[in-house]
Design goal:
10 strands; single chain; disordered C terminus; mainly beta; 8-stranded antiparallel sheet; 154 residues
Amino acid sequence: MTFEGSNSINPRTRADIMVLSHEDDDERHPYWYARVVRIFHLDVWYYGTENAGVSTPLRMHVLFVRWFGHDVTFNAGWSTKRLHRLGYFKGDDPSCFGFLDPDQVIRGVHLIPAFAHGRTEHYMGRSFVRREEEGDDDWRYFYVNMYVLSLLLV
């Protein structure tokens, strides 16, 4: 799916994204990270009082995402010279999945699996949200690559 500018998202190949954080405290990280699971294209009819009688649908795009959480036990950032580390939320956590307006996406992001920590089934059992090649488990952690990603995501 191509959005304004040159960014596009493909859940099969380049699915990791970043959005602005909505946290208010001073210690917050400025971004939230997610993996796009599915892209939905919806035809929506609005029957409100302002547009009564509209006969053509409005086309909407919606991203179904699996959110990453920051590993707050890991000291990271420019001052420590360590990449930020993320992990998935557990599958039964209400914050695990969500729907997102594509206009909120800042850009695609490059996440590096933390190979030394291995894979786990801790987050979620068998699920359709994973790519086929990922099997039934997830990487325990990912590192956020902090270089400028200047490529066209397809």
